[in-house]
Every structure is written in C-alpha cells, then in structure tokens.
What does this fold into?
Amino acid sequence: MSFDSVTEKIAHFIGSFDLTIEKARLRDQYEEFTAMRRKAELDELEEPAKIRIKADLELDPGKYGPLSYRFDTPPATPELPPPTDGPEFETVVVLEPPLSDGPPLPEATTGLGATFVIEQQLEIVTELIGSAVTYTFQTIFLRDNDVVGEGDFRDVDQLIALAEAAAQVAASMHAFAVPSFSISDYLSVEYVESLAEAMLAPINVEVEGAVVYQFHGEDAMGVIVNGEYVDEAPEWEDLLPAHHRLDEEEEDETPDMMPAEWAQDEEDEFAEGHTVIAGGNLAINEMNATVAWVDAPYIAVGGKAIELAMVSQVAVVSDTDKGTNGGSGTNVVHSSTIEVEGNSAPWLKKGSSGDDAPAYVHVDWITTDLIVANFVKQDIDATDIDHIDAEISATTTLYALGDNELIDVTNILQLGSYYDLIMIEGDMISVDAFVQTHVLLDDDVVMGGLPGPIDGSDENLVMNEVSLKKEGEDTYQAMHDSMADAMTMGEDDMAALEEALMNDPMFAGMEQMRVLKIDGSLVQVNVAEQSTMLADQDDVYLNGPHADETEVLAGSNAMLNAANVTKAGVDSVVMAQDGAFSDLLLHQASLLDMPTNEDIAEMTNEAIAAIMEEAGMPGHDNGIGPNGNDLTPSEMANSSDGLQTMLA
It folds into this structure.
C-alpha cells in the first residue's frame, strides 16, 4: 500500500530518528567497552611501564664558562635566633670615669679613662585584654502541614493550640525563670544574691503527674541522667532513631576508573516497596563555648566572690497513637555533666624552695569592670501535622510528608591571658545558667499499613544535654594584711605597689610577676535558653490493594537541646574580703503521656485544658481538643483528639 506524501515524510523522519538514536547508543556502548578493556589490560600489568629518555646535549657555554659555587660551611655551634615573644632585653651603654678601686690608667697613653657598663633591663611586653561579650539569638519557625486527599481530618488550628498550651505547661515546670540578659544586672551584687536566694528556696512543681528530680550543691556534681548517677553520659548518636542513623558500611576508598556519568549505584535507584513518611523530623539547638579569657593562681577580691551554676531541664511529651500502627513510643533523656578538674599553673615551679622575691613585676591596669559574658537564645517552633487519605495501588509508592531538618548551632571561642595575680577592687561574679525545654506532641491516627515495629525503630528521641566543665579548682582563704594594704594602692602608687608585691612572702620563689589590677568588678556569665516545640499529630488513612504492605513512619522524630561550656583556667587561691559563696542547682522534670503512663493521663489533660481555657484558646469547650478522626467514621463525632490521648 502506498503512502500519501505527508505519511511518507513522517515515515522517513521516524526512520531517520531511529537510526540516529541507535547510532548514539552504539557509540556509548563502544566507548564503555573500550574503557573496560583498557582497564583490564592495565590491571594485568604487574608494574607500571617505565619510560626513560636519554638526550646528549652539549650547549656552547660561550666565552665564559659557569662559575663554581659551594655553600658556606655551617658553624659548629649555631646560635639560636632571639625569641619573638616574651621578655625583650634593652641594652644601655653608660660612659663613666674609671672605677675608684681599680688600677689607675695612664692618662698620657689612653687619654680619658672610660668604663663601659652594659645593663640588661627586662621589659615584659603584654597586650592588655578587654571585655568580651556575645549575644546570639537564633529562631526557626516552620509550618509544614501537608494534606493529601480528602477526608474528615482533625482541625490543624486546634492541634497547634494544644501544642502552645503544652508549651505553657512546660514553662511552669522550670525551677527558676531565665536569668537576665542585661549585663548591668550582673554588675549589681544584689541581683546575683537574689539568684542565690531563689536557688535555696523550695521548688514546687504544681503540675500533677510530673516527675521531678532536684539536686543541690555537691550532690549535683558528676553525671546525672534522668535523676540517676551514671558513669558516662549517653551519646546522642547512639540514641538516634534508625531513620536518622548513618549507614555503618565501610566505603571502598579505591578510586573509580570509570567516568562519573557511567556510575550505576543501586542506592540511586528508587527503592521498591511502599512507604509513607509522616514523621522523621530532626530538630537541634546546640551551643558550644570554650572560655579561657582570664585567670591566675592567686586572686584577691576587695568585695564578694560569688559563683552560681543553675541547670533546669523540662520535657512535656504526648505520644499516644491509635490505629493499626501500634504506637511509636518516645525516649526522653535529661543528661547533666558538671565536673571540676584540677589544673595547676604550669609556669609555677613545683616544690620550689626559693625564698627570693620576684625580680620584676609588671602590672596591667583596668580602670573599669572586666566582663566576659555569653548570652544565647535558641528557639525552634515547628509543626508537621500531615493528613493523608490515599489509595496505594502503584508498583512503588513514597509519600515524604515529614523528614524536616531544623538546626541551630553556635560555637564560641574566647582566649585571653593568664596572670600570676589578679587584684579586683569590686566583686568577682560567676554565673552559669542553662534553661532547656522540649515539647513534643506526636498523637497519630493511622489506619492501614503494616503493624507498628516492635523493636522500637520508630521511636522518638527527646534529649536535653548540659555539660559544664571547669578546668582549675578554686580554694578560698582569708586575705592577709599585706595583700589588703596593696589592694588600696592606686595607679599613682605603682612603685609602692610593685614593692609591696615583691616583698609579699606568698610570691617568694617567682622569677617575675604578671599582675592584673581591676578597679571595678570581674563578671563572668554564660546564659543559654533553648526551647523546642514540635507538633506532629498525623492522620494517615491508607486503602487499596497494597495498603497492608505500606510502611508508615509516623514517629522517628529526634529533638536535642545541647549546651556545652568549658571554662579553662588554673587552680586558684581566692581571697575575698567580704566573703565567698558558691552554689549549684540541677532540676530535671518530665510530664509524659504514653501508653506506659496512662495513670497520669487525666491529670495532664486537666492541666492543659485549664491553660487553654484561661487563654481563650479554641478547643477547650469539649475537653482539651477538637473532635476528629478516630478508628472508624462512625466514632468520629465522639472521639477525642490526639492531645487528649497525649494527655489521656
């Protein structure tokens, strides 16, 4: 049968196009085949081929030949170059008449007799430090509320209101309010003393059903996890849900000889099976600070020496699921590590019996307050409320509705100077405060899909972690009279101050002294406030021929608040004229509503319902939440929402 003109042109075009594609395909296969053959040929060679090229070239040097050259012979005892840092020696040449006790020099022979006196004057060169203050504010706000399909899902606004009410409950469970972010407050000893009084006052958490652990003073030292002393603090990586763990398979480091575009990695292929990811979120607030600004083995304080450390960790979790998934579960971890390690000043001679006074005294003078402070505030406010009603009928299915990553990280490094003596005319204040809050609502309704894992692989992780380590231990003793007299000397009495310090028996045996004199107060503050709120109440309804084969990841959320502070210094003897005070407080509180905590469900329910009613939030008329989907459509009208399950 003959074609018309249009059909014939189309047929010719298709044939030409097919030949072009086939040609390109054959070329691609040929190049790959050639490369594989060459690689196989190279692999068979035991050693790489060696190619040697010999060329006899004799250039015409011209009229002048090259000169011979040899390096100078180095001296047998080479001298070291002078040090670039540290003491500098200034040489002074003084011309004077001959010494009277020496032999007379004949004037006719030498003219005027002269004696050269060379003096080496030690000058300590230092760079005067100043205050170091940092403010860090990090906020993440996420609303990832996905809807796939149509159904009678729970109301998103009311679920968010439940999370906000739970956050208020968590705030009421802290042992103390977040300390001030204003430096001027810490310059007032009255404010710092009010913090100390609050630490000593009884702490009562008025939320029924809350589990609270409190430690004061020396009892708060060491590693404490969920109210118990342990040898080692748990590692975040070891506790992560399986969804967030990295593959531990060792990778072959042998370079691939093939072009990158020819790589055929099985991981790049779309995974087989059916999966719905409605959780799997990662939220991290992390703060790391190393402070080594100023310290000395001897510290004299004209006022008071106050050192406070406060840690408050709170978690409110609701994780009660309904349906075929069987529940994910949540692992809540409060970890606190507070340690003090001795570190003697390495420049002081150990066991020195020398009674000689220091030969030199160098004084750095600061005429105001010296402040070293770090204020960090990290907030994560996220909702991942996913509603899906879908038919699973394809060969392969993947719904990725969650799997968000929200990370705040702050790293601070402060390096200053060490002295032999620090003289503080005012007060010495040290405050370290950490307030960590977690709120997780993961009340899911899952109909369809594989039964929930029994090995805890879909378990959530909620972790508060504080590590406060101090290098250098302080001991307190009374100030002796000679040091008290030296404290009253001003900058105009520099010579008298140096003389007093050189004659002080406490510093006998030192070759030289570096002194920092502060006319004001020395204030060292680290305050970190970290809060994470995640609402992950999902409604998942699956149907279709492959619904029973679908893996539903409704949990596997990982939340971390971590504050790690290292205060590097040396062992110090502190002498405070108006006395010294130090205290330590650790507070760990949890309010959990999970299948294993059904006995506190009603109490938790009432606590959040009361807050919602006072704030006029929606959803407080009928319990604490909206009416939404439950196990069957016929029960929707009377079913309570997921937070009621949280809290019920």
